[in-house]
UniProtKB/TrEMBL annotation, chain A:
Keywords assigned by UniProt, alphabetized: ATP-binding, Hydrolase, Nucleotide-binding
Protein name: fructose-2,6-bisphosphate 2-phosphatase
Record GO cellular component, one term: cytosol
Binding site for substrate: 232-239, 284
GO BP field: fructose 2,6-bisphosphate metabolic process; fructose metabolic process
Family in the record: In the C-terminal section; belongs to the phosphoglycerate mutase family.
Gene3D superfamilies named among the record's database cross-references: P-loop containing nucleotide triphosphate hydrolases, Phosphoglycerate mutase-like
Domain 6-phosphofructo-2-kinase stretches: 13-225
SUPFAM superfamilies registered for this protein in UniProt: P-loop containing nucleoside triphosphate hydrolases, Phosphoglycerate mutase-like
GO MF, any single term: fructose-2,6-bisphosphate 2-phosphatase activity
EC number, UniProt record: 3.1.3.46
Automatic annotation (TrEMBL), chain B:
Species in which this protein is naturally found: Triangularia setosa
Name of protein: 6-phosphofructo-2-kinase/fructose-2,6-biphosphatase
GO molecular function: 6-phosphofructo-2-kinase activity; ATP binding; fructose-2,6-bisphosphate 2-phosphatase activity
Gene Ontology process terms (BP): fructose 2,6-bisphosphate metabolic process; fructose metabolic process
Record domain 6-phosphofructo-2-kinase: where: 45-265
Entry keyword set: ATP-binding, Nucleotide-binding
Length: 443, 590
């Protein structure tokens, strides 16, 4: 397909992409779909996953392996109906402004892929197929045990039985499964094929930057277990005064937190294996990290600096409300998109954090010491917080957070330092210097 | 001669390496300073090696006319930008150096059953090239050596990987595989038709003959299928990739990501400053354009449109095809003045995209401070700044390095873009983007100047990019120079390697012969670079200057005489190397 152009060279940016997953059950399709969706949404690219299994369950909640036999006409009909319903919903979603839709299903035959492609192209949406192909028995079995025995399909059943039935279900799929372009007649498709967890990769006919970005992101995913630790800097002198931004030193209590941090980290890590520490370039995060063990490698990133409040830097919320009442109100109305005069918005921060996220995905254990807005943005990535929620998330001072990604979501553990600090959280409309977070505040 | 000296290689192969000015693409330069971090380098390590990767040899695989040079050069550009110490080793340079000027390799040089003499010659050339690679990786802290050669057989590649492994170097093969006849013909046409062998021949016919010649010369070529090797196969200039990953990680993913965005279509990039803003000209205020700024936007747009039309006409006049102009896309930052500068073009129907990453460098505490005030308030910072203007960051400010890291996603989109591209941004952003395309050293980047009365055009070519400047006429001289919202510490005198520093108005380093000569009358001889755009020079010389152009065979010369000009009008300084390189490449088998 040629890039879309018209007479004066307008190339519409409004590309819409449908990521169509391909592969046998238990090949990590849902994991890939879930990660891709999280990443895109975080980048403000409207993304949603449509899991055909969920649609099918409406009709057939607990099917046995026979249901997936291609000779079972009834099963076949229901599965086709579920796929149609999922695609129809996705199309509706595209019309309401969706950009990247992910169709999570096996799509394991050429006929099915052709149907999906035609059906989706017809609506002016580009298709990229993402196949996960894996022949390593051990990996497949691990996947079956971990994920599928907790699947709603097998709720309340004996796990051994469930695993056996699931194995048979896969056999039924294997009978008809064709990997993409196996016969050489699917070369016109845009696709990414990941074989044996990245041992081989085929990339075919990438159409635009967004697609290349998705492909790159998926190639960087790894499945080694690891965690990310997040902490704000210790309480600063400006925090005490309720002033935002600045480049102040730590308060006494902030210093106390810095001293306590190594102990807190050790408790959370559980061993003396070293973490890599990333701080911002501002004094308060560097000071907070300075007592950590010498064998921890430390790096400073400008990209981890606090959201730049522009002309409002160093002011209290009251001062901002007095001096720039319209701005103050505009910010509360759409905190994610509001850009301080001469400064940044949350959206700007997310964009500058993008290389950090890519580095995070490819790295192992990292401890990030940064600032309220930045931690909120990173937290939003891992926890899939919406743009409405993320700028209001309470991130208290003197608290260490451990995030561990699992197949279907992220696990959070909180470690409190028990060193007193002011609260810097602010509810919508408030100009208080310090107030305690409320569950409904802001959101 | 058993041992070839590197110096001999350099002497015999004109495209080996050279020193260059910031106006010449520096991708083939030997970096002179030690400890000079790359523009977007995130961190440094004791060993100098990044991304938890050791020493790597990227070995190119592919027949001639498969775009290997373009891939090598682009990859080196990107990796160096990320801070990975990268150098390209063209085997062809070593072969040419060995056989000497005008010499030829024996007819059976590439045959599998070559005569013992040819085999020995081949071995000698290979040995010397590899010794240089090891020398660079082991003793000069290099991280990635790109080895540009045909490497046609599986057995040869296996042996190579084994040999590199013995030297503790990991090998990643990158094959450019092309079976699309259109791409082949296009590649052959672009590089090879200037050969005397094909003089006066129909380009299609010449391309066909050239491809035929490759086949006879290199009769055996096996595409990669070695399961035990790490390789990326790029098929038909990026239409598909096959990636066999045995032991590689991030760096190779990054390379693949970069390659998926690379294309071989010809397109140019224009850089231009934003117009002047109203008197509240500061970083934080984000003021709109002043009346002069709006007038500037109008004139700039007209100049650009006229220039593009003239270029097109010039191609037709030279007998080129009458093709419509490539579409033009405009990128601005999210700052008001850049958005408003694009307004006249947007009204003409061009697509304008706003990119928040392209906001100007943040001056931090230096905002609105005069140089004297900064020196008084932050004497220690000034001292640090003067030592390393690229990496130093004033309190709350961004360094150029921070800016480069922030611009990295833009770089990839820049590579992906197939339309002509106009970038309207603050001078600091232009400096960094320009430095990517022209491979400037971090010492030079903070000094690059983009006067408002010029549009900079970057024209890509396989071996190196070219920069050209288009004059915007009739501007008030007061609006031309630097940005008032910049940090007002001039480039420290110690680092000034430019004659007549006080009136440094353009990013070009003037060739030695021009230095010290009075601005009243200057003779410049300029050699021309590669490609099909030879005649397309534009001149900014309407300020009391006159320029004449003559065509003396292969080498054209431009001479200009200026009276009372503020600066020498050197429109396009392209070294001869590029030209020689193209001729040199004809009949090339590497």
């Amino acid at each position: 397909m040629a890039p879309k152009t018209n007479g004066v060279g307008i190339r519409p940016e409004e590309t819409r992409i449908c990521v169509v997953m391909v592969g046998l059950p238990a090949r990590g399709k849902s994991y890939i779909a879930q990660k891709a969706q999280r990443y895109l949404k975080w980048l403000s690219i409207p993304a949603a996953t449509f899991n055909v299994g969920n649609y099918r369950r409406n009709d057939a909640p607990h099917p046995s392996a026979d249901f997936f036999d291609t000779n079972n006409a009834e099963g076949e009909r229901k599965r086709r109906a579920a796929a149609e319903a999922a695609v129809a919903d996705m199309m509706k979603w595209f019309k309401s402004g969706g950009v990247v839709g992910i169709l999570d299903a096996t799509n394991s035959t050429k006929e099915r892929r052709k149907w999906v492609l035609d059906r989706i192209n017809q609506e002016g949406v580009d298709v990229i197929f993402v196949e996960s192909k894996c022949d390593e028995e051990e990996l497949i079995m691990a996947n079956i045990r971990d994920v599928k025995t907790t699947s709603p399909d097998y709720q309340g059943q004996d796990p051994e039985q469930a695993a056996l039935d699931f194995r048979n279900r896969i056999r039924n799929y294997e009978k008809v499964y064709k990997t993409i372009n196996a016969d050489g007649d699917e070369d016109h498709l845009t696709y990414l094929k990941i074989m044996n967890v990245g041992r081989q990769v085929i990339i075919n006919r990438i159409q635009d930057y967004l697609q290349s970005r998705i492909v790159y992101y998926l190639m960087n995913l790894h499945i080694r277990p690891r965690s990310v630790w997040l902490s704000r800097h210790g309480e600063s002198m400006l925090n005490l005064e309720g002033r935002i931004g600045g480049d102040a030193d730590l308060s006494h209590r902030g210093e106390e937190y810095a001293l306590k941090l190594p102990e807190l980290v050790l408790e959370s890590v559980g061993s003396d294996r070293p973490l890599t520490v990333w701080t911002s370039t501002l004094k308060r995060t560097i000071a907070t990290a300075r007592h950590l063990p010498k064998h921890y490698n430390q790096l400073q990133w400008k990209a981890l600096d606090e959201l730049d409040a522009g002309v409002c830097d160093g002011m209290t919320y009251q001062e901002i409300a007095d001096m720039y009442p319209e701005d103050f109100q505009a910010r509360d109305e759409d905190k994610y998109n509001y850009r301080y005069r001469g400064g940044e918005s949350y959206r700007d921060v997310v964009i500058r954090l993008e290389p950090i996220i890519m580095e995070l995905e490819r790295s192992e254990d990292i401890l990030i010491i940064s600032h309220q807005a930045v931690i909120r943005c990173i937290y939003a990535y891992f926890m899939q917080k919406t743009q409405e929620e993320s700028p209001w998330v309470p991130v208290p001072l003197h608290t260490l957070m451990k995030l561990t990604t699992r197949a279907y979501g992220t696990e959070v553990q909180i470690y409190k330092a028990e060193v007193k600090a002011v609260s810097t959280w602010r509810g919508k409309g408030s100009t208080a210097k310090h107030e305690d977070p409320t569950p409904e505040g802001g959101v | 001669m058993d041992t070839l000296l590197t110096a001999e290689i350099a002497a015999n192969a004109p495209r080996y390496r050279r020193k260059s000015s910031t106006f010449i693409d520096g991708i083939h330069d030997v970096p002179s300073e030690v400890g000079n971090l790359a523009p977007a380098q995130l961190y440094s390590t004791m060993s100098g090696r990044l991304f938890h990767s050791g020493r790597i040899a990227i070995v190119m695989v592919g027949l001639p006319a498969r775009g290997k040079t373009h891939i090598c050069v682009s990859m080196a550009r990107y990796l160096s930008w990320l801070g990975v110490k990268t150098r390209i080793f063209h085997l062809g340079d070593y072969r040419r150096a060995t056989v000497g000027q005008g010499g030829h390799v024996p007819q059976d040089y590439f045959y599998p059953n070559a005569s013992p003499a040819s085999v020995m010659l081949r071995q000698k050339i290979l040995k010397k090239c590899r010794e240089d690679i090891y020398g660079w990786l082991n003793h000069e802290n290099g991280q990635v050596a790109i080895y540009d050669a045909v490497n046609p057989t599986a057995s040869g590649r296996r042996a190579l990987a084994k040999e590199f492994a013995k030297h503790d170097v990991q090998t990643l093969f990158i094959e450019s595989f092309v079976d699309d006849q259109e791409i082949l013909k296009e590649n052959a046409r672009n590089v090879k038709i200037s050969s005397p062998d094909f003089h006066g021949m129909d380009p299609d016919e010449a391309a066909k003959r050239y491809l035929k010649r490759i086949e006879t010369k290199i009769p055996v070529f096996e595409t990669m299928a070695e399961e035990e090797l790490n390789y990326v196969k790029m098929i038909n200039a990026g239409q598909a990739f096959f990636y066999n990953n045995v032991s590689f990680n991030y760096l190779s993913h990054r390379i693949v990501f970069y390659l998926t965005n690379l294309h071989i279509k010809h397109r140019t990039t224009f850089f231009v400053r934003a117009g002047t803003a109203t008197e509240e000209d500061s970083y934080k205020a984000d003021a709109p354009l002043s009346a002069e700024g709006e007038a500037y936007a109008q004139v700039m747009a007209e100049t650009l449109m006229r220039h593009r039309e003239q270029e097109r006409q010039a191609i037709i006049d030279q007998g080129g095809p009458d093709v419509p102009l490539r579409p033009l896309t405009i990128w601005t930052s999210t700052r008001l003045r850049t958005i408003q500068t694009a307004e006249p073009l947007r009204e003409l129907g061009y697509k304008v995209r706003h990119r928040s990453q392209m906001s100007q460098i943040n001056p931090g505490v230096c905002e609105k401070l005069s140089e004297r005030a900064i020196r008084n308030l932050y004497p220690e910072e000034v001292e640090k700044h003067e030592l390393d203007p690229y990496h130093h960051r004033y309190p709350r400010a961004e360094s150029y390095h921070d800016l480069a890291v922030r611009l990295e996603p833009i770089i990839l989109e820049l590579e992906r873009e197939q339309n002509d591209l106009l970038i309207i941004a603050h001078e600091s952003v232009l400096r960094v983007l320009y430095s990517y395309l022209m491979h400037c050293s971090t010492r030079d980047i903070p000094k690059l100047k983009f006067p408002r009365d010029e549009i900079i055009e970057i024209i890509p070519a396989a071996y190196q990019n070219e920069a050209k400047r288009i004059h915007i006429p009739g501007l008030d001289p007061r609006m031309i120079p630097g940005s008032p919202e910049d940090i007002r510490i001039p480039v420290p005198p110690g680092l000034e390697d430019f004659a007549g520093g006080g009136r440094q108005l353009s990013p070009i380093s003037i060739p030695a012969m021009m230095m010290g000569s009075p601005p009243s009358a200057t003779e410049v001889t300029i050699g021309f670079a590669t490609g099909d755009r030879k005649g397309s020079v534009s001149f900014g010389g309407d300020r009391k200057g006159s320029i004449s152009m003559s065509n003396t065979g292969g080498l054209r010369s431009v001479s200009g005489s200026f009276s009372g000009g503020e600066r020498p009008v050197t429109e396009k300084i392209v070294n001869n190397t590029a030209k020689e390189m193209v001729e040199d490449k004809v009949g090339d088998e590497d």
